[in-house]
Write a structure and sequence with these properties.
Blueprint (H helix, E strand, L loop, with lengths): L10 H12 L13 H11 L4 E5 L4 H15 L6 E5 L6 H6 L2 E5 L5 H12 L5
Length: 126
């Protein structure tokens, strides 16, 4: 779980991180104000099954482009990315083109997020 950019509103990221943890997943939370490059480096170092981003700043397209570039440079572009935040419907196609596997907006059900991440990483025991 990562919170890229300068936005410091991390409550949602922490709630989702706890929900994933309570569902039995190992969760590494990088904290706020991470760069896409530092997130990719953490994913490589920790051998992650998925990267979950919380983005409320409106910079989701530029952040996801930079993350996709950094992941490609590190050879980890196959790690699925999940994005939550204020994401306009018009931007979802571009995010999916960048490799984002699931997108969750404000008010998304935590059980739905957990189920989607479990499915993406390969099963309920992930």
């Amino acid at each position: 779980m990562a919170k890229p950019g300068l936005d410091g509103h991390e409550r949602g990221a922490k709630v989702v991180a706890r929900g994933l943890r309570d569902a039995g997943m190992e969760v590494i939370y990088t904290g706020i104000r991470q760069t896409p490059e530092s997130i990719a480096a953490a994913a490589l170092q920790e051998d992650l099954d998925a990267i979950c981003l919380s983005i409320l700043s409106g910079a989701h397209l530029s952040i996801c482009r930079r993350l996709a570039d950094a992941m490609a440079e590190m050879g980890i572009e196959d790690i699925p990315v999940v994005v939550g935040g204020i994401i306009p419907e018009d931007d979802t196609e571009e995010l999916r083109r960048l490799g984002v596997r699931a997108i969750f907006g404000p008010g998304s059900n935590l059980d739905d997020i957990v189920a989607a991440v479990q499915e993406i990483v390969g099963g309920a025991d992930a």
